[in-house]
Each structure stands twice: as C-alpha cells, then as structure tokens.
Amino acid sequence: MRVLHVITGLGTGGAEQQLRLLLRHLPAACDVVTLTNPGAVARQLTAEGFRVTHLGMSGNRDLTALPRLAKLIRAGRYDVVHTHLYRACLYGRIAARLAGVRAVVATEHSLGESQMEGRPLTRGVRALYLAGERLGRVTVAVSPAVAARLHQWGVPRRRIHVVSNGIDADRFRYDARARAATRRLLDLPDDAFVVGGVGRLVPGKRFDVLLRAVAQLPHEVRLLLVGAGPEEDELRTLARRLRLGDRVRFAGEVCHDRGEAATGTGDDGQDEGTAQADPPGTAPPDPAAPDLPSLLSAMDVLASPSPEEAFGLALVEGLASGLPVFYTDCPAIEALPAQERGPAVPCASDPDAFARSLYALLTDGVPPRETAAVAHHYSVTRSATRLMHVYERLLTPHT
Q1: Is residue 104 within 8 Å of 27, Cβ to Cβ?
Q2: How far is CA 43 from CA 52, 54, 323, 339, in A?
Q3: What Å distances lie between residue 196 and 193, 225, 350, CA to CA?
Q4: Considering the entire predicted model, what is its pTM?
Q5: Where would a tag sit more exposed on the chain, N or C end, judged by fewer CB atoms within 10 A?
Q6: Separation CA 259–CA 111 (nearest Å)
Q7: Cβ distance 32 to 52 under 8 Å?
Q8: Candidate from 101-110, 139-148, 247-256 with smallest mean pLDDT
Q9: d(CA 227, CA 368)
C-alpha cells in the first residue's frame, strides 16, 4: 500500500510530531508532502529515510499549488492520500480528486469549541472546511471530543473515525539520572519543587495562569515552561512584573527524543523532492539541549490551564513519565473511566485554583514516579493499527 501524507508545514508542532511517530509504525510505504515550512520535523523524517517533498506554497491563496500537487499524486501512484491540518486538508482533498484518487483521509488534529489550530472559528472557516470535507471519504478525529464537534458541524457520523493520538510510553519513562542532569543544566536546585508547562507559547494555552499561580507559592517552587511561540516576550515581561526573578525557566522548543537535533537538513536547494532547511531566522534545536522526556523527568508536576484542547498529548506524555497532572481540559483523559485516569486532577483555569492545587501537592509530597496506565492506553502501535484499518476499509470494494 502506498500512502501520501500531505501536511501544511513540518515545524516542531504536535500534529507534525504525531505524524512522524505514526510513520515509524505504519506498515505501508509512506511519502510526505509539506505545503510550506519544511522545518525540524522535515529534517528528522528525511534522516529516517522518508521522502519529503516541499511544495513551496507561497500563501493560502496560491492556487498554483493545486496542479503541482495533483501531478505529484498521479506520478506517485498512491493508493491513499492522507491530509493533516486545515490548509493541507483543503488543497490535498481537491488535488487528490484531480489526480483520480478517491481514497482520501483527513485527520482533524486541533478542532476546539471556538478555535482551530489556534485561530478563531468563523462562519467562513467552517463553511470552507465543510465544503472540502465532502471531497474526502473519511475524517479521522484524534479524540471523541473532536468527533462530537465534527458531527455538530454537520459531518455525518459514518464519515468520522476516531483514531487517538499515540505515544511511545517507554521513551517517556522517568529517568532519575536525566532528572539530575537536566536540573543542573537549567540551574534548578535539587530540592526545588518544579511545576512544568508544555506547549506552544500562545494565548490559548494560558501559561500566564501558571505564572500568577507560582507567584503565590513559596520561593522553593519553580516554573519550567517548555515550548516556543509568539507569547514568549509577554510571558517573560509578566514574570518580571510578578517579581519571579530566577524562579522561571523558559526551555524553548525541544526535541521529543534523543538524537533528533543531530539529524541532517536534507537540503539540496530544490523546491521539490527533498526537505529544505528551516526558514531564515529559525534555529535548529541545540544538540546539547535536554529532550522532552528529560525535561519531564526534571519536573514534579505538570500543569495545563488551557481551557480548550483537542486531545492533550503533553499531559499523556507527562503521565507516562509518572507525573501528577493538573488540567483544565484534556479529552484524552476525560474519555477514560475515572479509575483509569491515573494522578490527573481537573482544575479551573484560574491562578487561585492552580495555586491551591499545587500548594496541596507541595504540602502532601509528590508520590513515587510510576507510568500511569493511561499512557499505555494511548500506545502509538495501537493508533497505527487503527489507522491501517481505516485505509484498508477505504480500499475494499463496496465500502
């Protein structure tokens, strides 16, 4: 089976990392097309042996991308075209139709109640999405919550399949040596109580709530924010205004596992055929920087005040590391029975509420680190198997 994955960009985002992880486990011949930004994940995929094509799309209205993408699909003789993220779903579905491929799957990674991929949902966005959705055969939702939102929009239930995001739980297993080394690197005291936050630094993640919560707690409490984004300067300014001083660490954008930062660029200067280097001003990850599992090992608790999530992958990774987690919204956790959720506690997206929960944990003491069962429930091998069943069903006559 030959599958072409079409994605809007290949920077270090959740959907991009999830695609990379799935490709390692899918028993199919997979190629990737990125419409724009062949960044860090493009380099990683190329180094791992996947063919990555940069379409060089200049903007949302670059209609010249359609015939070029259709030509590429025809030349590759793909059985399935699988699209990811809003722009790629729209252009990829149309191009697949032009190329004569009817087995078209789209994954909806980040549909919230009021936003999609961090942008407000308008009538125009919804109308265009639904028009494109009808050109495919199946829409994959990463959680039951996303599936419900799609149906509320008007997508028929028979066209929606839930294939949850997956993780490799063993990669996130707690490592005491990595904890000590990472704390030394970040100048975090061994006896500090470290609150972690993981995600893009954008307004919707509400990391300002964590800053205000930590400001209410004893000096021994530190905050470690992992991620990059347009709100970083504002968060740093807020930290100074709250007089948090050296109690906050901004780790920046990091690798999900060891060895990623050392991958080659795959840049041969061509517009199509291989991945190119990051856009100007985008620095590749530092090979000496700790990876995400090491940063999670360095934390004592993971907190997410985001009021609107499509899945909550970072929290599942935190549970795999044995961390207690406080969260405002996490469909991945809420989809499970209460007894299977592990040390996960809901908390209002409010500084006082998070401060109370964190102080209680600080007072009671952090429990021993054990991988929660929820991490194994969201195994990437299980997700890859379910996705293959979707492909096979599409390619079976009369389905």
Answers
A1: no
A2: 9, 11, 31, 40
A3: 10, 6, 16
A4: 0.85
A5: C
A6: 31
A7: yes
A8: 247-256
A9: 26
Provide the greatest CA pair distance for the chain: 65
- pLDDT tens-digit readout, 162-177: 999 999 999 999 999 9
The DSSP bridge partners found for residue 160 are 139
How far apart (Å, rounded) are the C-alpha atoms in residues 39 and 275?
8
Long-range contacts of 264-267 (CB under 8 A, 24+ apart): 264/43, 264/46, 264/47, 265/43, 265/46, 266/42, 266/43, 266/46, 266/47, 266/52
Cβ atoms 248, 225 nearer than 8 A: yes
Let me know how long the chain is.
399
Structure tokens at 172: 């996130």
Ramachandran region of residue 285, left (φ > 0), alpha (ψ -120 to 50) or beta? beta
CA distance 387 to 78: 16
Q: Could you tell me which residues come within 8 angstroms of residue 131 by beta carbon, excluding any fewer than 6 positions away?
A: none
Q: pLDDT at position 105, please?
A: 96
On the question of pLDDT at 179 being above 80, the answer is yes
Cα–Cα distances (Å) from 382 to 160, 167, 385, in that order, read: 18, 10, 5
Joined together, the tokens standing for residue 245 give 């001083």
Please report the pLDDT score of residue 122 as a whole number.
Answer: 76
Give tens-digit pLDDT for 233-269: 999 999 999 999 899 999 998 866 654 433 332 333 3
What is the DSSP track for 48-84?
TT--EEE----STT-TTHHHHHHHHHHHHT-SEEEEE
Q: Which residue type occupies 311?
A: F
Q: pLDDT digit string (tens) for 378-392?
A: 999 999 999 999 999
Parallel, antiparallel, or unpaired: how do β-strands 138-141 and 160-162 relate?
parallel
Confidence of residue 39 (pLDDT cuts 50, 70, 90): confident
E strand segments, the chain? 2-7, 29-34, 52-54, 80-84, 104-108, 115-116, 119-120, 138-141, 160-162, 193-198, 221-226, 248-252, 301-304, 325-327, 344-346
